[in-house]
Amino acid sequence: MCRIGAIKSKKYLHSEISLRLMRSQQEGHDDSGFAFVMQDLGGIFESYKDLPCLSMAATVEGTRLAEDLLHSLGFTRVLQWSPDVNHKPGLKISPMPNYIFEVLKYPKSHKYATKEEKEQLLIDTSLRLRKALETNNSGYIYSFWPDILTLKEIGSPKDIGTYFNLWDQDEGPCAKIITAQCRQNTNYDIVRYAAHPFFLEGYTILVNGENTFYEKNKQYQQGLYGGYVGFESDSQCFLYSLHYVNKILKWPLRYFMHVVNPLSYDEINKRKDKDVLLRIKASLEHLETNGPNTVLGVVPDGKLLCVCDPKKLRPVVIGRDKDTVIMTSEVEGINDLLPNRDISKDIYPKEREMIIVNNDLTVEKWQQ
Amino acid sequence: MAAVNVNELHLDDLPWIVEFDESKCIQCGKCVATCSFKAIKPEIEYRKKSGSIAEKNKLEKVIVIRQNVSFQNHCKGCGMCTRVCPNGALKIVRNVDSQFSVRYRSEKGESIKKGGRSNLNTEGRTLDKIKVGRISQMTDPSLDAVRHTFELKTPFGRVLSADKLNFDVKGDKIIQSAPLPPNRWIYPIIMGDMSIGAVSWRMWEAMAIATAYLNEVMGIPIRMCTGEGGIPSRLLKSKYVKYMILQIASGHFGWNRIIDAMPDMVEDPAGILIKIGQGAKPGDGGMLMANKVAKYVQEIRGVPKADLLSPPTHQGLYSIEESVQKMFLSMNAAFNFRVPVAIKVASSVTSVSVYNNLLRDPYNIVGGFFLDGLAAGTGAAHEISLNHTGHPITSKLRDCYLAAVHQGRQGEIPIFAGGGLGQTGSFAADAFKSICLGANGVFSGRLLLEIAGCVGNDTEKCNACNTGLCPAGIASQDVCLTKRLDIDKVAQNLVNYIMVTDFELRKLMAATGCSSLPVGRSDALITVDNHVATRLDIQYVC
């Protein structure tokens, strides 16, 4: 079973905090991997929030392929950060040769491009990079988006932390929003792309649970948008549904839960907004997931979300103090990071509830 | 050597032999009185007496039951005589050496007509080669079939893709302002599709009662299709018409009454089904032989007592586009665009083309695609059509669904599959597998007849619905025969069967961890037949 977490803070937090959040929940996962997505970056990345940041793991050949492609498209490097890796013997990790985190300048052709045009360029480039690196298995593109940094690796979270020097708070990146997951071993093949958090165009998703209607979701999403690729994990479908509902259809965030976990006909029929909800239920029938799952997510403007399905078999808790809100699978994680918080304010979401953490850290609770 | 007239029809040519054991017969006459086909008769047989030589030269008279050797009045194998015989003196035996189909054609110079179902089962049943193989166990737990809340409802009506719903967003709410095609949520099983005429009014009434009871008392929003033959005016003007899907086929039988009743209707019907073709006899129109055109059938359809043959196609429609514009628009307009209008076609090599055209119709007015396979039933058909034309339902259902998937339009026109579903008795299994293969729902007619007491089967037994002499009173308009059908008992059995089917559907949904209908969830299915796996794109197992 996965253990997942999302942290949002008024202050920049070091990536080490995500390791600690996961370590304290280690009995709930199989110690097989670690991944995080950082958003609203600080430290050396703080000055480049409008420029796209590439997160990639690759072989030497893959690195060359990616650099050549980016160069040919007119991207120019502004900043590169490579973690100072620790080759200490005995670490349980299967590292890639190169880890590249670099900020790039848009091509000159996009000097006067609109936000939408720039976003389209980034998604097109991500897909081209991914395709190029798939040949010879030469690397993985995790994210290519402004103000986002992603790392995914196979192995023990503790050892992955040691390898990348993430335990050292003076080193490495920091951010105001960090999502993390411990467990590489999905129900499907063990590949780096299959690890949560999943990221697409400013949207991040982590899921603890199952997507019973994975096959239906996948078949529907494959034709819906060019960026919906991979499907290495049944949980990626949640990301694409969130992106489709909020970004493509431009529907308010709360309708995400009406898509992935629609109410029954009888429940809808008692509501004032039944006409709208029945249409959504019929039109997006193939995006229903049918649980059981708990979803954590981040949207482009920095809000956090948590959605619990009606089967509600997956744990989640939300704890907070004045500067930080943490959503995670087990309360031990929050106890470790926020030991002095008021635990009476902890929230244990119920089935069919959606929790939103706003940018001022106020928490909204919506009953579906 | 003795002379024999080999060209005359002989007992040995008939499909069924009635074996009579005179030692058990008490001469009550029930068997003869019961046989609606007049296939047996009492006769006096002269036999040599047993005993002394003098006695043996005398003949004694013995009353026996003999079967008629006739093209018209031969035994259909229904077995009603064996049911009424108090001593089991009769036995119906299949004649494996029968030459009847050759004799009939050569002697009568006409095509054989039959009712019921196809009797040339060379295909085998694909659905029986499929198992529900993905059982939820650990992380995606199976559910409690009794206590868990399941959703067994499906949309009926045109579904628009989300980007075409034209919603307005105000604040954090969505407002629907633009008109949208009618869409209803119904139970994934549709009953009937058999006309008053094809079946007796008592059978039709039993189905209507069961439908109303399931909706009003049991909370199951099942719908019944009228078939092409109209609907009683009282029902049209009652609130129960909301459970009825009115069918219009190429003969337009019964529509005068429907149009006349419209001003007095208090509810909209559940839907309109435009029948283009049917699975049991694709390429043919409806066929109601004159001997089934009873007075009330004449009245409801507005026709004389004659063979009622619907044309093979709707007159004046030469293309799918044209039919959409003319027929679907006019049927939508008839009820002011409040009632879903669906189409029923025979499963065919060309079904995907039809479905694609309907999906791409810019008016978005086709609200359901009823696909009928070759194992379906019919009131009457030429044997050549029943046995030699048609297309199995399973692969064509899958083809249509995957054609929609290919275009990202699955679910936009809900597919309802039928044609032999429930043939082996378990409708729930066939329904569940069909839904996993892409159907939103299923429909059945012949299964309902079997629930009502039809004695026919897929191996030549009875199948005489066309004669009007149905021994079970189901496919007959003869007052004496229809009296054999207990309306309330049939309605009760239909309700019982649907309730069991509902439970069994929940059992399968529970085992696979589905709270709602797994439309298109083909990953739940497996097969040990590699050809089936490849054709249907499901997992091959061994």
Task: Give your account of this protein's structure.
The complex is a heterodimer of chains A (368) and B (542). Chain A is an alpha+beta fold. Chain A is built from 10 helices and 16 strands. Chain A has a single domain (3-367), classed as Aminohydrolase, N-terminal nucleophile (Ntn) domain (Glutamine Phosphoribosylpyrophosphate, subunit 1, domain 1, 4-Layer Sandwich). Chain A has a 6-stranded antiparallel beta sheet with strand order 7-2-8-1-14-13, with helices on one face. In chain A, strands 9-10-11-12-15-16 form a 6-stranded antiparallel beta sheet, with helices on one face. Chain A is globular, with a radius of gyration of 20 Å. Chain A starts with a strand and ends with a strand. Chain B is of the alpha/beta class and 542 residues long. Chain B has 2 domains: 11-110, Alpha-Beta Plaits, CATH 3.30.70; 128-540, TIM Barrel. In chain B, 28% of the residues lie in helices and 19% in strands. Chain B is built from 17 helices and 23 strands. Chain B has helices at 30-34, 53-56, 80-84, 100-108, 201-216, 233-236, 255-261, 295-301, 320-334, 351-359, 383-388, 393-406, 427-436, 446-452, 479-482, 487-511, 530-536, and strands spanning 16-20, 40-48, 59-67, 90-94, 113-117, 130-132, 154-157, 167-170, 173-176, 183-186, 189-192, 223-225, 244-248, 271-275, 287-288, 308-309, 341-346, 369-372, 377-382, 415-418, 441-444, 525-527, 539-540. In chain B, the strands form 8 sheets. An 8-stranded parallel barrel of chain B has the order 11-12-13-14-17-18-20-21, surrounded by 5 helices. In chain B, strands 6-22-23 form a 3-stranded mixed beta sheet, covered by helices on one side. In chain B, strands 1-4 form a two-stranded antiparallel ribbon. In chain B, helix 13 crosses helix 16. Chain B is globular and about 110 Å long. Chain B starts with 15 loop residues before the first strand and ends with a strand. Chains A and B meet through helix 5 and helix 9 of A and strand 9 of B.
